Amino acid sequence: MPEGKIMKALSGFYYVKCDNGVYQCRGRGLFRKKNITPLVGDVVEFDISNPNEGYIYEVKKRHNQMRRPPIANIDQAIIVVSAKEPDFSALLLDRFLVLVEAKRIEPVIFISKVDMLSEQEEKRIKEIQESYRQIGYQVETSSTKDGSDLQQLIPYFSDNISVIAGQSGVGKSSLLNKLNPLLDIETNEISNSLGRGKHTTRHVELVEIAGGLVADTPGFSSLEFDEIELEELPDCFPEMEARKENCKFRGCMHINEPKCAVKAALENEEITEFRYEHYVQFYHEIKDRKPRY
């Protein structure tokens, strides 16, 4: 039985790509009973005995999946944040990073519109960039002028399944269109009255860009931490995860515990204060969330 990857899901049909081409398939009736929903990005076994329509017989084990948008086996998330219009927000960036880290997806930080900054603002952004690089994150920047520096992103796409995530109005769809003009994803200018962008995508689809596959719908349409448990949060901050073995107490949450290696690193300025403040904010957000039933 051939194996392929689901490239698009639309109206109950799954479009599976294998070496011989793309086949329109349905899921087995048994899937519904077993509560299995095939997702874009899934590797599947399928039957193509009928030339017009195939059936998916097995969904291979996923290494991760997202609920919004529904997609599986993502290798990386390119997180697009703007330096200006809308203004750069480290809090928002850290929120995206936590969501990405919780799914064990590799993040790439992409700061757009850096040419719009004043000299003082540029200095601050460079300091923030450096602090993220020291944690181990890949950070790239681009200007609004001609988009030619988007070429620096191309090596990241090769042989990966990627999602583009970021705040409204930072140009996620425009970025994809510049990388692959054939996409022509529908975009809207930032609404001046609302100060935010709009995006309309009707289904999830993987499109080919620079030797890799990219979801043509923005990742993380919800920025809530409703899928993250409190004890998982410290591991979503790599600089904390790296030090947890040195804490006195196993399962240290790095809040009030004595002899905490993370708090010591904070005092020694080995961990940035703003990152720790965001961690504490997220900690209380998850701790105070209403129980799910």
UniProtKB/TrEMBL annotation:
Coiled coil, from the record: none
Residues annotated to bind GTP: 112-115, 166-174
NCBIfam families, per database record: ribosome small subunit-dependent GTPase A
InterPro entries: G_CP_dom, NA-bd_OB-fold, P-loop_NTPase, Ribosome_biogen_GTPase_RsgA, RsgA_GTPase_dom, RsgA_N
Function text: One of several proteins that assist in the late maturation steps of the functional core of the 30S ribosomal subunit. Helps release RbfA from mature subunits. May play a role in the assembly of ribosomal proteins into the subunit. Circularly permuted GTPase that catalyzes slow GTP hydrolysis, GTPase activity is stimulated by the 30S ribosomal subunit.
Domain EngC GTPase per the UniProt entry, residue ranges: 72-221
Annotated positions binding Zn(2+): 247, 252, 254, 260
The species this protein was found in: Paraliobacillus quinghaiensis
Subunit description: Monomer. Associates with 30S ribosomal subunit, binds 16S rRNA.
Main location: cytoplasm
GO biological process, one term: ribosomal small subunit biogenesis
EC number: 3.6.1.-
Family: Belongs to the TRAFAC class YlqF/YawG GTPase family. RsgA subfamily.
Cited Pfam families: RsgA_GTPase, RsgA_N
GO cellular component terms given for this protein: cytoplasm
GO molecular function: GTP binding; GTPase activity; metal ion binding; rRNA binding
Subcellular location, record wording: Cytoplasm
UniProt-recorded name of the protein: Small ribosomal subunit biogenesis GTPase RsgA
UniProt entry tagged with the keyword RNA-binding: yes
